[in-house]
């Protein structure tokens, strides 16, 4: 998208504003699909938690995607968007048995990641096919908060607990139709991914009725110019060859599944914010904008990098700014960042704002959440209205107190 398109949308829909480029989502989807074109059966299940707007889900459904969900609400969103239950996989963590049974009743593929729930579910529902999430004990990911396959992770059943797992399956007579792993996000070294895949292949040989192997995702995308990223083409070439060989060994053509979220939508997203104040202190020039970590928490939560451009003055002289929000505590998007000269009223654009940005937004400081716009076929389409104050108080129940002061 061009700066003038974004400025036009900021003018039309107000700010702060999330904008998503449909063409970039499509490009990323087909890039991953082409990387694994040598695999007979490929399934791409979009990770809903990355960006759960129903219009985004419908766009991905149009391309043939399935869904990866982690809550009953994400399952419901998927069904509302038109996905068939059998094209949805549900991989919760630490949820109640009641929620898992509610999802199973919808016909969605269940993926269980702990022995206690596996035993309970198998004893009650031995005829419902279940996928098992394995923890391969492989450390991968760009931040400790998004590395989920290591030995201290709360996710998955330890590969070292395989004898116990097999005993539960034998005792309950349950049907295991899939094996799953996810090591973490921002994977840089595909050899680490391939090493974890070997662990999954070995585990899979313990089960005779498998239909698919799910390798999760975590592919790294570039966050700035010349940034490193996961080479999905090389991964596709190497993993496809190994997967096809495994299928021959297993004696059956299985489905190879992935669950990309960030890979599909991160680079498609732009977050637009207006500069309220330029503040010079004794050591820093602050650009204070009309938003905060209530709308974009990733820099404060993960230390993530979002490239920031002044699209109101793209050819201006570069100066150094610390870009900060309006939340009443430390609320920093970027420190001492080189940006084209900023004036009050300028619009700043945050790149890579498609994944885990709006979906993690909140009403902290009693602020409303932004609108969302999908740029599709050369036009901006409003896909979520900006919240209002009435939205914030809608579910509050106001008590009626007496006017007299309370004495203690």
Automatic annotation (TrEMBL):
Residues where substrate binds: 298, 302, 329, 356
Catalytic activity entry: meso-2,6-diaminopimelate + H(+) = L-lysine + CO2
Domain Orn/DAP/Arg decarboxylase 2 C-terminal: 18-354
Residues passing through the membrane, by range: none
Domain Orn/DAP/Arg decarboxylase 2 N-terminal: 23-266
PROSITE patterns: ODR_DC_2_1
Pfam family, one: Orn_DAP_Arg_deC
Sequence positions bearing N6-(pyridoxal phosphate)lysine: 49
Pathway: Amino-acid biosynthesis; L-lysine biosynthesis via DAP pathway; L-lysine from DL-2,6-diaminopimelate: step 1/1
Cofactor: pyridoxal 5'-phosphate
Keyword Lyase: yes
The enzyme's E.C. designation: 4.1.1.20
Active-site positions on this chain: 328
GO MF annotation: an example: pyridoxal phosphate binding
Lyase keyword on record: yes
Binding site residues for pyridoxal 5'-phosphate: 218, 356
Sorted UniProt keywords: Amino-acid biosynthesis, Decarboxylase, Lyase, Lysine biosynthesis, Pyridoxal phosphate
One GO BP: lysine biosynthetic process via diaminopimelate
Family annotation (InterPro entries): Ala_racemase/Decarboxylase_C, DAP_deCOOHase_LysA, De-COase2_C, De-COase2_N, De-COase2_pyr-phos_BS, Orn/DAP/Arg_de-COase, PLP-binding_barrel
Family: Belongs to the Orn/Lys/Arg decarboxylase class-II family. LysA subfamily.
Classification via HAMAP family: LysA
PANTHER family: DIAMINOPIMELATE DECARBOXYLASE, GROUP IV DECARBOXYLASE
Protein role: Specifically catalyzes the decarboxylation of meso-diaminopimelate (meso-DAP) to L-lysine.
Quaternary structure note: Homodimer.
Protein name per UniProt: Diaminopimelate decarboxylase
